[in-house]
Specification:
about 130 residues, Jelly Rolls, 9 strands, 1 helix, six-stranded antiparallel β-sheet
């Protein structure tokens, strides 16, 4: 059995404009869990993820906070206990519309490494920062 305590994981902070903290708890390079990637994403107040896609499905569970899930087809309000299934190749974005942290639990199957997960998020924020120069 493997146990992770989210509050003990420092995670990686993604800079503005996609200000959030990602904590990968299980992945091939986190506790040697080869089958899935499980992480928390803490989207800070009035921030969001980038509009993005994955080459594999993603399960998203809203743990706390409120916001919106945007897709190419519209948007839906999210709150605790909302569960979202994003198909591989489905463009999506999570937006924190409130003043408390929007906490998501996410699962990828098959797994990404933590390094791959963090790198994709950092590259998206860096691309916007470069474009604004």
């Amino acid at each position: 059995m493997k146990i992770a305590r989210g509050w003990e994981e420092e995670g990686v902070t993604i800079p503005a404009p996609y200000n959030r903290t990602i904590k990968v708890l299980f992945a091939p390079d986190r506790q040697d869990v080869k089958e899935i990637t499980f992480s928390y994403a803490l989207i800070h107040s009035q921030s969001s993820t980038d509009m993005h896609i994955h080459d594999r499905p993603e399960l998203i569970i809203i743990v706390s906070g409120r916001g919106k899930c945007r897709t190419e087809h519209g948007e839906v309000d999210v709150e605790p206990d909302t569960v979202i299934w994003c198909e591989a190749g489905e463009k999506h974005q999570m937006v924190n519309t409130g003043y408390e942290t929007l906490k998501l639990a996410t699962v990828f199957l098959p797994a990404y490494t933590a390094a791959e997960n963090y790198a994709r998020c950092m590259e998206a924020a860096k691309a916007v920062a470069e474009a604004q120069k």
